[in-house]
Amino acid sequence: MSKNIVRGLTSLIFATVLLCGLVIVYIWFSGGDGRASAPITSSHLTLQTGDSRILYSIDPEQSEAMFRIDEVLLGNPKTVVGKTNQIAGEILIDFDNPDNSQLSIIRINVRTLTTDNELRNRALRGQILEADQDEFEFAEFTPKEFIDLPQNITNSEVINFQIKGDLSVHGVTHEVMFHITVTLVTEDRLEGQAETIITYQDFDMTIPEAAGVANVSDEVELKITFVALTSKSKL
Question: Is pTM beyond 0.90 here?
Answer without folding.
Answer: no
